Structure formats: C-alpha cells, structure tokens
C-alpha cells in the first residue's frame, strides 16, 4: 500500500531522526512537513492540514502530550502516532487517553513506522488510499474497481460494496444482518434473502462454484477465505 500524496507532519527535536524519516517518507511519495517543537507543530498543522502527525513525546517547551491534545481539540480528522524513548506503560496509556491513535517506541525501524502509518490510513482515511491489495484481490476505491487475480470484475455498485466488505473482513464470519447493515444501510426495509442473491452472483463472477472463496456457515453467515 502506498502513502503517495498523503500529508505527513514530522515533529521531533532530534534533527537526525527528522532527516531520516523525512527522506524515507518522501521516497514513498508522501507530502512531508517538519517541525522541531510543539509550538511550531501547531502552526504548521493549521496551514498544512496533515492526515498523519508523527509526534515525539519528549520535547523542550510544549511536550508531545500537549501538542496531541491541541491538535485533537481542533476537530480535524488527524491520525497521531506518538514516538517515545520510554518503554513505560503509563506513558503509552496517557498518550492513548488524550487522543493519540498509536504509539511507537524508539528505536524503531522505518518499515515498522510505515506499517503503522498505513494502518492509520486504512482506519481513518480509506478513501485516500486508492489501490489496496488483499491477497488475490485489488480494491481501487477511487475508481470503484475490484480485481481478482489481476482481472477487473464487472460489478454493480452494490456488488462492489458487498465484495469489498467481505474481502476486507477476510476470515471473519459475517452475519446476514451485519452485511445488510454495512452494505445496504440501517434503514433497508427488504428481506435478508437479498444477501443470498448477491452472494450467488458474486460466486458466479469469481468462478467460485465450490464455495472455496466465499464460504457459507449455516446459521451464522458467510466468510471470505483466502491466504
């Protein structure tokens, strides 16, 4: 999954860490801004409107906890990942309680941080991701296209939303009631059997005659199964 075009703000008073992360994230295609202290971070965030903030806890003056509270208080949808050199549970709990979305302990690898960023994007900004790969499936939410084994499937809007939902929940049993709520909407007044009709159609398009991809669990619902 790419972070291309994602706005990222790096806040740390250690120049070598900022330089290391900035270079890596720029190479991944992100739009990056930096700040070396809390006050500067809040000013930059006000204009830059970052999707994700990588925020060091221990900084002179305004610390990371205070910056986190200030950024969350704006009401903007910002994912905040806090960095700390302290492997102390109380610091992690404090950060999460004041609104931090994730926590990374120094030292960490760039790959670990990138994975954390991608997880926050999936959770808070799914529409920004463009193509996302799940096993043999590729979901392009911007184009509303879903591919299986590199072949674009011809899907109706409802089929697209249904298949996307069960693919993203691979391995999880999904009841008909839950599927209706998430795909058709809470106010849908039709019968649960509509789910069976659409599942049958998807199986045909996936050539899943033996129901190995979309399994039926009698009395429970459906489960997508792929490695």
Automatic annotation (TrEMBL):
UniProt protein name: Two-component system, OmpR family, response regulator
Pfam family, one: Trans_reg_C
Residue runs in coiled coils: none
4-aspartylphosphate: residues carrying this PTM: 56
Stored Gene3D superfamilies: 3.40.50.2300, 6.10.250.690, Winged helix-like DNA-binding domain superfamily/Winged helix DNA-binding domain (1.10.10.10)
Domain OmpR/PhoB-type, residue spans: 129-226
Domain of life: Bacteria
Source organism: Paenibacillus algorifonticola
GO cellular component, one term: protein-DNA complex
GO molecular function: phosphorelay response regulator activity; transcription cis-regulatory region binding
Keyword hit for Transmembrane: no
Alphabetically ordered keywords of this record: DNA-binding, Phosphoprotein, Transcription, Transcription regulation, Two-component regulatory system
Domain Response regulatory: 7-121
Keyword Phosphoprotein: yes
